[in-house]
Amino acid sequence: MTTAGDQDSLNTLSVGTAGPRIAFLHGLFGQGRNWNQIARAVSGPEGTDARCLLVDLPDHGRSPWSQQFSLEAYADAVAATLREAGAGEPWAVVGHSLGGKVAMVLALRHPELVDRLVVVDIAPKGYGSLERFEGYIREMQALPLGELTSRGDAEARFAEPDRGVKAFLLQNLRRDGSSWRWQVNLDLVAGDAARGAGSRIAGWPDDLDALPAYDGPVLWVAGGDSPYIQRDDAERMRRHFPRTRLFTIKGAGHWVHTDAPEIVVTALRRFVTAPD
Q: What InterPro entries does the record tag this protein with (predicted)?
C-alpha cells in the first residue's frame, strides 16, 4: 500500500501497513521515491512486515524550500514529520549521504524518536566542499528551461554523459503547463557550493560535539568502492554512536542501495527486526 503525505509538512510517501516504522532519508539532489524499491521489499509482499515512510528532505522533491541550509533545521523538520506520522512510536531511521547526515543529527538532537539508526556511506565529518557536485550544478544551471519542448528534448540537451547520473539529476525537472522548473532548490545548493570549503552541506556542525552520544544500535553501511568512509572515520563515528557496527558491501559505490539492493534489503530486514 502506498499513500501520499501531508503537503503542510515535509512531503512523504508511505509503503506498508503494519510492522515496525522505518523512515528513509535520501541524499543531495534525490527524493524519497529513490528508496521505493527498497521500501517495498522491506515491507514484504503483503506490506505487513514494515511501515516505511519515504521522506522528501527540505529543498528537495515536493517538500518546502528554505532560505538557508542547516543540517539542524533539516533534522528538526524530519523530527516534526515523524512525530506527526508516528503517533508517538519510535522509528528506525535510514539515511544515505546527505540523508545519512540528517539521520545522525536527528538521532543526536531527538534520540527519543529514533529506535535504531542506519547510516549509508557517509561519516559525521566535514567533507571540505561540494566539489564532487559542482559539475552537476553547472550542467543543471546550463539547461535552457525556457527553450525546452519535451522531456526528451531536455535529455538530449543535458550534457551529463553518465546515463544513470543524468536520469538521477533530471528526476528533479518538472513541467508546469508549458514551462519547466527545477524541483530541487538549485539556487540554494549552488550558493552553498560557492562557499567552497565553507560549504554547510558538505560540512558537519561542531556544536553537535557537545550533545550526548546516541546510545541506540547503529548499522553503518559502506560501499566498498566508495571513498566517503575512511578507516580513520571510525573513532569519530563511535564517539557519537558507540554502538556502531560497520558493514562494508564489496563492489558497491556511493549509491550502495542502487548497486546492491538485495544485500541492503537483507541487512535492513535483519537489523530492524533484531532484538535491541
A: AB_hydrolase_1 (IPR000073), AB_hydrolase_fold (IPR029058)
Residue 254 among the catalytic residues: yes
Confidence of residue 143 (pLDDT cuts 50, 70, 90): very high
| Active site (annotated) includes residue 257 | no
Q: Give 6's pLDDT tier (boundaries 50, 70, 90).
A: very low
Q: Please report whether residue 161 resides in a domain.
A: yes
Domain range for 162 = 131-193
Which residue among the candidates 9, 97, 129, 226 is catalytic per the annotation? Answer: 97
187 domain-assigned: yes
Residue of 26, 110, 254, 257 marked catalytic: 254
How far does CA 66 lie from the centroid of its chain? 17
* DSSP reduced 3-state for 12: strand
Q: Is 187 a catalytic residue?
A: yes
Q: pTM value?
A: 0.94
User: Catalytic: which of 6, 150, 153, 187?
Assistant: 187
Q: Same domain for 112 and 12? A: yes
E-strand ranges in the chain read: 2-4, 12-15, 21-25, 51-55, 91-96, 114-120, 173-176, 179-182, 218-223, 244-249
The total domain count for the chain is 2
pLDDT band for 276, please (50, 70, 90 cuts): low
Residue 7 confidence (pLDDT):
39
pLDDT in tens, 166-183: 999 999 999 998 899 999
